[in-house]
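Hi L., both proteins are below.
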Amino acid sequence: MRLPYAKGHGTGNDFVILDADVPLTPELVAALCDRHFGIGADGVLRVLPNTSPGAAWFMDYWNSDGSLSEMCGNGVRVFARHLVESGRVAEDAPIPIATRAGLRTALPEGPGFRVDMGAPVLLGTSWAQIGDAKFDGVGVSMGNPHLVCPVPTVEPLHLWESPAFDTDFYPEGVNVEFYTELEPDHLRMRVYERGSGETLSCGTGTCAVAVAYLHAGGRTTGTVTVDVPGGRLVVTVDDQTCWLAGPAVILAHGFVDTDALRY
């Protein structure tokens, strides 16, 4: 089958975008995301009509291993950029997008978008472990589960495989973030994403880090700049919600022969 696709990224968190209502399977998604035998991506965004009130389009997001995910903050911005560039929505108006975690609204802002990510939920304390090193952290839900661990420096961490975590606390798995403070309200972060491995950026993860950082300082609101390996994101937490601002780029359009993919 000759399948049309677009390729985009938000601060290096990259996606294959599908417009066709092709039946997706975990095997097809993993093959598309394979960086050697496929197109290569951290996940797949499929554009589907939304049947419930509030938004015309549904973001069907799959992790690179073929598992489904509730939300992707960088993905929402890239999805919004694709909707604009494909002529589905106006480029100067709010863009409501339905996701498995609920409605998210993207507002055009410079070269990117500012997204209403919804109200964060603090889940309590837990831990992650890499080798013999154990890290205490704070659980945060951004519609998907996160564990945020402060560390002196993020550079030496070995994130080529999933950190161990409390499976009773996170029975469906967890995205694990590690951050260090560069200066007040300016952080550096690395992340291991559930279903994708270490990525250059994680939008919901940066929101979770900002929320945990503010909480550690006795604050419930504020604006935090978060540097990730793929660039910079800005998170603003107010009394009602959490906002994520950053770039969104569509890189290419093409066709892939699904019969040539390696399953």
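That was the first. Here is the second:
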Amino acid sequence: MPRHEFRPGRLVAGVTVVGAAVAYAGDAAGVWSIAWFAVFPVLVGGFLVAAVVALVHYLMRRRRSARTASSENIDVPASTSGSQAMR
């Protein structure tokens, strides 16, 4: 059993931030040269992709849970049994 739910939007956002950190670390180490403002479009684009991925994942989970809930409604509703029915 998994310890927590998989969140692909957070994974994409984390990879984006790690990529920006690697780019700045490479610039600081002298491996390559990057302008100071070049990382901002990469971060914004990565966060937009992460938002779209999170939205798609949310809609898929919502649709799957609705489909599962609709197939499990075979019993009598709780409001027609027990003390609720005597009122």
